[in-house]
Write a structure and sequence with these properties.
heterodimer; A: about 300 residues; mainly alpha; two-stranded antiparallel sheet; globular; B: about 375 residues; alpha/beta; Rossmann fold; 2 domains; 8-stranded mixed β-sheet; 5-stranded parallel β-sheet; 13 strands; about 20% strand; amino-acid transport (chain B)
């Protein structure tokens, strides 16, 4: 029972990380209609900024702040230099240009930091495990990731529903020509939204980099799952991104944790793992296919 | 070009050709190894160990031409590099692959094209038994060996129940097979992880609930670093054991004090007492400013084996060169070293303990566990 509870927490933590990635992606996709493959690179930028500043100053918190700033700055910069020219183009041009950005970011990072992975040490206040009600021990830092994800979800929801910026974002999603005609500086709005999404990706990179490793190319595997999350949740919907991320995180973690054990009852451990892991990865896409059949616009999508 | 110039040119070319023929035939070595990503530390040490041996050999190594390329730990890239090295660079010999899945993709094709392959690390069981080849030498070990040593230790130490875990690729399967061959207690879980996996939360949850007395794990390179960090954070306190790879010099700094006191099976340690090892460890520290790992030691031995064979035979005479390699007439940093009938090593295995020397985590030999140990597949090798 404790095992299932711990795996569920792992799924929740993974889901929250995906949410941080997917939130920015879905905003950019929804508001600007842009497919941004370079979102994974912003995740990597955040992780490297955090690792570098934390190592240089010895303060993890400063590193975390640096990840937000660096990723937001990188996001704003590429929006102004490259992305801005792509809004009116079709999706193929956007995919090509943002794919080129991935290569630029990866090689640039390799040039600056080398190919060797960096490892962050957590601040003493966040290390170790805590005992949860029910006697389950769980690493404190993973709990922090869950809490940060939750706080970001609430913050984004408040921003979208209660602030002027949120109104503009929603209006931009609904009809971009109209809000431009009403006198909203649409290009500044786009830069802000893009930088906001980038900052969230950078935060996710820094948090995950802290428990795993910081290396070139770390963003791309996450990016694919973030796109799946956006499609399941519905394009442009923050609520959809949250629910989608939790669904994907849970499905992936519980599938990987439980399937090999079930299969091992009637085959050897190596094959059970191979088949179990492949089935678990497939489960996510099966989930996506089922959602798309039942609701082509995604769970909370406004448009088909 | 007029006639006179043409003549001068011809003379110059002839003179160059004569100069080349005066020494022994040069040997062009293609090293394919991992220099980027999570496995970079292993390949960098392999390369640096190999190059240190060439440097220390001085003039004796002047006929070795070394090409090094990064395989990014990807089998398809390794195959591309091997094709390029064999076809356009025309290398005589390949070496350097760290990972067994890459070795399986490259080695059989290379030996089929008549190239020698000296393994500095990966030695999957599939190439040790029926799949052995006269042109393939494993200078490192056979994949099962280190894990057999850990299994023998676990049995001797009377550990009752063990949780075992390795990545799902040829070396991981060999690892768990090797451990189980020498350990006769209860296995609570047999878990395979993905190669290159960076998050071990799900596996740590299983360890927590396994009720095992020890965890045996084989996770080389970045995988081991990520696991050790996360294990230390998890609050699980079941003791760890493993092969030398999991507590190698490249992993220890990142693993931190969590690794202190951990026992691991190995074919080499920096405190192994023989003159060749002393020269190697001291030379490596002076040259690179860090402690050598097992991968560096194996790279160093491989280069010295190659040099010993080059001093006895010409690589263009494949049979003579093979015989010269099989003699293993070099001073190994591992002390006793010879090749078995399947051209895999016969060597001693030790149990090492992770200790702190000053501020630096490193390994120290506790005791030998398997002496003159070969591998379980030699009998199946017909050549």
């Amino acid at each position: 029972m404790l095992l299932v509870a711990e795996q569920a927490l792992n799924g929740l933590q993974y889901g929250m990380m995906l949410f941080l990635m997917a939130a920015g992606l879905t905003l950019v996709f929804g508001v600007m209609g842009l497919i941004n493959l370079a979102h994974g690179s912003l995740y990597m930028v955040g992780a490297f900024a955090c690792a570098w500043i934390a190592a240089a100053t010895g303060w993890f918190w400063l590193g975390l702040l640096a990840s937000l700033i660096a990723a937001a700055a990188a996001g704003a910069l590429i929006e102004i230099l490259v992305i801005r020219r792509l809004y009116s183009r079709d999706h193929l041009d956007q995919v090509l240009a943002t794919f080129a950005l991935i290569l630029v970011f990866s090689e640039g990072t390799r040039w600056l930091f080398g190919s060797f992975p960096l490892y962050l040490s957590l601040p003493p206040a966040l290390t170790g495990a805590v005992t949860l009600p029910g006697g389950l021990q769980y690493p404190l830092f993973r709990l922090v990731i869950i809490l940060v994800g939750g706080a970001v979800a609430v913050g984004l929801w408040l921003m979208i529903t209660r602030t002027r910026l949120g109104i503009r974002i929603r209006a931009g999603e609904a009809d971009r020509e109209m809000i431009a005609a009403l006198g909203v500086d649409i290009s500044r709005l786009y830069t802000i939204v893009f930088a906001l999404g980038a900052a969230l990706a950078g935060l996710a990179g820094a948090l995950v980099g802290s428990i795993q490793s910081v290396q070139v190319g770390m963003g791309e595997p996450v990016l694919i799952l973030a796109f799946v999350t956006v499609v399941i949740g519905g394009i442009g919907s923050i609520k959809g991104a949250l629910i989608g991320a939790l669904l994907v995180g849970m499905t992936d973690t519980l599938g990987k944790a439980l399937l090999p054990g079930v299969l091992a009852r009637f085959m050897d451990a190596s094959s059970a793992n191979t088949i179990g892991a492949s089935l678990a990865s497939m489960l996510i896409y099966i989930l996506m296919a089922v959602v798309l059949i039942l609701r082509p616009q995604g769970l909370f999508g406004a448009r088909a | 070009m007029n006639a006179r110039k043409r003549l001068q040119f011809g003379v110059a070319v002839a003179a160059l050709m004569l100069a080349g023929a005066a020494g022994a035939a040069p040997v062009k070595v293609g090293m394919i190894t991992t220099l980027s990503g999570g496995g970079a530390g292993l390949g960098i040490d392999t390369r640096d160990g190999f190059m240190l041996a060439l440097k220390q050999a001085g003039d004796a190594a002047s006929e070795v031409e070394l090409l090094v390329e990064d395989d990014q730990q990807k089998p398809d890239i390794a195959v591309q590099i091997a094709d390029k090295m064999i076809q356009s660079d025309q290398v005589d010999l390949l070496t350097g692959i760290v990972w067994s899945n890459l070795a399986m993709a490259v080695v059989p094709a290379a030996t089929a094209q008549g190239k020698f392959y000296l393994s500095t690390n990966a030695a999957p069981s599939a190439l040790a038994g029926a799949g052995c080849d006269p042109k393939y030498f494993a200078v490192s070990y056979q994949n099962d060996n280190m894990h057999e040593a850990a299994g023998a230790y676990a049995k001797k130490a009377g550990i009752g129940k063990v949780f075992i875990m390795a990545p799902n690729y040829p070396a991981g399967q060999d690892s768990l097979t090797g451990f189980k061959r020498f350990y006769d207690g209860e296995i609570t879980n047999e878990v395979y992880t993905q190669v290159g996996q960076t998050d071990y939360a799900a596996e740590i949850a299983q360890i927590r609930n396994s009720g095992a007395d020890a965890v045996f794990f084989f996770l080389p390179g970045g995988m081991g670093i990520a696991f050790m960090k996360q294990y230390a954070e998890s609050g699980v306190d079941i003791p760890l054991i493993g092969p030398a790879f999991s507590f190698s010099q490249d992993i220890l700094p990142a693993a931190g004090d969590a690794a202190l006191g951990v026992m691991n099976g190995a074919n080499w340690s920096k405190d192994l007492d023989n003159p060749a090892n002393a020269t190697f460890v001291e030379g490596f520290e002076t040259e690179y400013g860090r402690l050598p790992s097992l991968y560096a030691a194996q790279g160093y031995d491989t280069a010295n084996l190659l040099l010993s064979a080059m001093s006895k035979a010409d690589i263009t005479d494949a049979d003579a060169f093979r015989a010269a390699l099989a003699e293993a007439d070099f001073d190994s940093v591992r002390g006793k070293f010879s090749f078995g009938p399947n051209q895999h090593p016969i060597q001693d295995f030790y149990i090492r303990e992770v200790v702190k020397e000053g501020d630096v985590l490193t390994n120290k030999i506790v005791e030998p566990v398997l002496t003159d140990h070969a591998d379980a597949y030699a009998a199946d090798c017909k050549m």
